[in-house]
Structure formats: structure tokens, C-alpha cells
Amino acid sequence: MPNRLSESLSPYLLQHAHNPVDWEPWDEQALAKARTEQKPIFLSIGYSACHWCHVMERESFENPAVAALLNAHFVSIKVDREERPDLDDLYMDAVQTLTGRGGWPMSLWLTPDLEPFYGGTYFPPESRGGMPGFIPLLTRIAELWREDRAGLVGQAGHLASDLRRQAEVETGATLPDVTVLGTALEQLRGSFDARWGGFGPAPKFPQQMAVELILARGTKEDQTMALRTLDAMWEGGMYDHLGGGFARYSVDGQWLVPHFEKMLYDNAQLACCYLAAFQATGESRYAQVARETLDYLLRDLRDPQGGFHSSEDADSEGDEGKFYVFTPVDVREALGQADGERFCEAFGITGGGTFEHGRSVVHRFSCPVDVRLPADEDRALREQLRIWRDRRRVRPGKDDKVLAAWNGLALSALARGYQVLGDSRYLAAAQSCAAFLQRELWIEGRLMRVWRQGRAHTPGFLEDHAALLEGLVDLYEADFNPAWMHWAEALGEGLLSRHHDPADGGFFSAEAGQADLIIRQKPGFDNAIPGGNTLAARSLLRLSRHLQREDFRTAAEGTLRCFGPWMAKAPRAFLGMLGVLDQVLREPLNVALSGHPDDPGVRAMLGEVHQRFLPGRVLSVSLDQLLPLHEGRGSTAGEVLAFVCRGRTCAPPVKSARDLARLLQTATM
């Protein structure tokens, strides 16, 4: 018999719908059951693409002995962390407080009042390798709940108090100065791996925000750290050389063997990184990686309705990485004897293998210079092998839910891709995505977070409003449709009315009054995606410069003041927020073009803007004077004019792309 998870829309929860465990979703019915029966809650949090979540399911949640213990003594609740980031953040803090580390699957035991008293991550069924076994652990916790319930409840109360103290933000009185940026860059220099790129030892994560901060603020010597990291990620196995896009992280220090899951948020952000590197250097390989990553989104993650799916699994047919790795025999079968051997030499596919069972991860860095393939042949053979792979192999499972925040990141990537690369497919996809989000997730002036199979649910969180807001600003700067700016303004007003802390600054993740949330947190740290407060500060700052809204600017800068003391103590944990601080400290560069976006003169001027790396620049095009940046800046008789301001200093308007290029060059010196 299926359990209550069969009623869910979440692919992750549906994966557990036929476990022998009597799983409940996180809802009032399940929470009321725990209160009525006075049983502890076993809370399991994970996500669809999580490899170790699958392992724990096979080993424990399909195990009749485990199910019998859970069903007899606990109310067992499953949460998809991607649907409820507020719960995930809160209880991850609890696990890290209890154990000193965290991860997924996340396993916690709560009182019926939702206060945690014990937790961890993955547990094998029986004790092994120094890890406690799940069966003896469940047995012991059930025993303690019977015999010393007051002790566990007291322990939970102390932990909840600790979590409340941790959630308090030591608000700063002033805006941080440039010193904290210098400290962050110095720390990045100290942890940089000069041989392989990246920052710190294995496992290595992309660290997009480190790369972006270095490109924007670092010295010429610092730039080599960012570019070496981007090159190493592309050359290694974390990049899918056949289908484009990046895996979640590298398990080793060489970027060779990835953890094969592919996430929408990683690929959206990395596409933006490589686009910025192309603007900063003019090196075509960065444009190629950005293009292939965006093409991966369009081909493999796009929903027919216009939004983008969340992720692809690491596993295929129950075997991690099976879809992505090759033997020389596989390659020769796909490409023929001669081309197959040349491809194997160029992409590190050997008889001994670089992965499990004699299989190899496709990569570039071990290729001798004299056997590299010419660009056209390289591209053609990679495409031929991709098609063979797609036809002959079982594709990894896909989490096909659409999340507002992650789609906001994708919206930014596609809009910027159109701006920099000029491919109209990216603009059309961005417009279609924005229209889908407005149609399906913007309901009576409120943003929802999740959509799947025609149904939207779960009110949007801080990161949803902020990421979508910034995506709309990027889309406006691509097609200059003022409707996107009007929607962004409504989202900004929603942020201020529902999430902002006007007393101490910053933003709460969830709206006030959620009965199922014991602590309302202000997410500050930047992780795989920028923290909610980073996204809010960045998006509101950009919107304020377009609309000249002082309340948006004040809220953005108030967020930086709020987290200023934390940034000073641990700048590496706030690299995205430091990027916002960099934009506040530098005088804004505003470029307003008077004319129609399709006018050839305007297009030529836009080309001058888009080819340059101009961190924080504000770009607007309009025929009328209805938007604030265009007030008093009209043109006559179809004349195209460009108005460029750096801070409060504005140059006289110019009429040609050549003159605009000179102004931009002067403004960035």
C-alpha cells in the first residue's frame, strides 16, 4: 500500500511513496498526529538528485525491520529540501550544532513541538566504519522517549534556544568599507590551488561567487586565479563535454571525477561566470562554455510550458555516473575505429579507466598538445558521441518541478547570454520562461515557489522573490520591455512588505506567522546559491538604480549594514554579499539610450556595451521618457542618443557607437 507521500507533487517524495515506512508529508495532519499521539517525529530531508539519499532509501527505508521500528515508535515525515528551504536551513543548523557537520540525507528527531533533540545525516542499517547503525539508533531513541522523555524534551529546549541565539544577527551601525573586500581577496589568494585551480582541497565546488568577486574587484594577478579556475573546471570531468553543463562538484582536487548530479542553479550561475570571463578577456573558449551550458538548459531541462526543471540525478539504472562514463570500446562503437581512437586520446579515455570498473570520465586536461583535435572536428565528434549516448543509454532521473528562485537564476543567465552572445534563442527562452512564471506562479499578486504538472503550491520565500526580481531586471536589459520592470517593482514591494526587517535591516526567509516554523531566520551566508539576503540586496540595488526608488536602495544598503559585522568576521562566507558591497562602494555606471531597441543605431550602441565587462552597469533603452533614467532625455526626428553617467557626473549625449565606445572606455578607467 502506498503511504501519504503518493499524494505529493514532489518527485523526491514520490520516490518514497511505496516504502514500507508510513511516511507523512510535512503538513498540519502529520504534525497534529505527533501531538495527539505524543510520539517523537523522525524527520528526513533530502532531494531527488541526492545519491546518498537513494542509498539510505535502499538500505534502510526499504528495510522491513527499519520500517517496523519507525512505524511503531515515530511519526515519520519526509521533506523535499528544495520545496521548503526554510525548514532545510533551520534543521541543518540543528544538525551542524549537534554533530559539527551537515549534509543530505538529513536525519533528525523532533519533539511534537518541532524542537530537535538528535540528528545526523546518512545512517547505515547497522553500525559500520565508525558510523552508528540506524536500527540500534531507532531502538535507543524509542527507549529513551519511553523512559526519559523529560530529559529529551529538556535537551530539545536547550538546543532550540541555541538555534534562536544563532539566528540573531549582530546588526552593524555603518556600511562596511573596502577593507573587508581586501580581506576576502587575501583569503582567496591564500587558499588558491595554483596547479589545479579552485580554492581549498577536495572536494572542490565551483565557487561562482569567488570568481565573480575576483573578476570585478581583484588585481590583474588575481584575475589569473579566476581564469585558471574556470579553465580547470572546463578541462576536467565536472564539465559534460558531450552535452554541456556542469556536475555539482568534483570529488578530487583535479576536477577529474565529478559527483554527477546536474543542478539548474549551478549551471545558470556558471553560465554567467563564463560570460563575464568572455567579456573581461575576449577569449572564445569562455563563450563556448557559456553557449554549451545554456544549450544544455534549453535541450535537457526546459519544460514544454516554458519553465526550467530543477535537476538531473547522479545515478542511472541505480549506478552513479553510468550515463556519463566510457570505455574505449564504447567510443569506437559510436565513432568508428579511427575517430574513436583519436577521441579517446584527446579526452582521456583509457583502457584502465579513470573511474570505477575500468570506465573513464571524459576530460581534456591529460590530452597531449599534439593530439588535440581541430575545433570543427572536436565539436562534431563530441556531438556525434552525445547523440549516441542519448540513444543508447538510460538517462538519469530528472526532478521536473519548477522552482521560482532557480528559474530566476536561469532567467538571468539566458538574458545575459543573449546580450553577450547575440543568440536570439536565448532571448526567446527567457521571455517564454518569464511569461510562464507570471502565468503559473504569480497568483493574485502573490508569488508561489513550486510548480509541477499544472499545479503551483507553497508561498514564495525570500530567495524566490529576489532571484526572480533580478532575472526580470536582466530580461529588461535584454529586450527593454517595460512590463518586466513593472513586475520587478511589484516583487520588490512584496519583499519590503512581507520579508523586510525595518528595525534592524535585512530580510527574513519566510513571511511572519508560519505556525510550523519554530524560528524565523535571516539567511545570510552564501552557499551553492547566494543567500536570500544577498539576492535581496543585489536585486533591490539594481532595481533602485533603474527606478530611482530610494526605499529599495535604503533596504539594500541596510542589509549590508545588518550583516556587516558577520562579513568582517568571516568574509569567505559572504562572497556574494561582498559583491553587492562592491557595487555600492563604486559609483554606478548608467547607460540610457534614447531610441527604439530594434533601431540599427541602437543595436550598434548595445553591441559596444555588451562586449565590455562593466560590473554593476545599468542599461536602459526607450523611445519615450516614461522611465526614470529617460526623464528629460528624449530625442527628435528619430535621432539615437546615448547618455552615460558615472555616479552624478554625466557626459554630453553622443550619437554614434564609436563615440559611446570612447565614453565607456573613459568611464571604466
Q: What number of structural domains do the residues give? A: 4
Given the structure, what is the number of helices? 25
- Reading off the top of the CATH hierarchy, the class of the largest domain is best stated as Mainly Alpha
Class inferred from helices and paired strands: alpha+beta
The fraction of residues assigned to DSSP E strands is: 5-15%
Helix content: 40-55%
CATH topology of the largest domain: Glycosyltransferase
* Total count of strands: 19
CATH-level-2 architecture of the largest domain: Alpha/alpha barrel
Distance between the termini: 69 Å
Any idea what the shape is?
globular
Notable characteristics:
669 residues; 5-stranded mixed β-sheet; Glutaredoxin; 4 domains; Glycosyltransferase; single chain; 19 strands; 6-stranded antiparallel β-sheet; alpha+beta; globular; 12% strand
Give a structural overview.
By secondary structure, this protein is α+β, with helices and mostly antiparallel strands. It has 4 domains: 4-167, 3-Layer(aba) Sandwich (Glutaredoxin); 181-316 and 399-585, Glycosyltransferase; 324-393, no CATH class; 589-667, 3-Layer(aba) Sandwich (Glutaredoxin), CATH 3.40.30.10. Helix content is 50%, strand content 12%. Strands 8, 9, 12, 13, 14 and 15 form a 6-stranded antiparallel beta sheet that branches. Strands 1-3-2-4-5 form a 5-stranded mixed beta sheet, with helices on both faces. A 4-stranded mixed beta sheet has the order 17-16-18-19, with helices on both faces. Helix 13 (328-335) crosses helix 14 (337-346) and helix 24 packs parallel to helix 25. The longest helix has 19 residues, at 149-167. The radius of gyration is 26 Å and the shape is globular. The N and C termini lie far apart (69 Å). The model has no long low-confidence stretch (mean pLDDT 95).
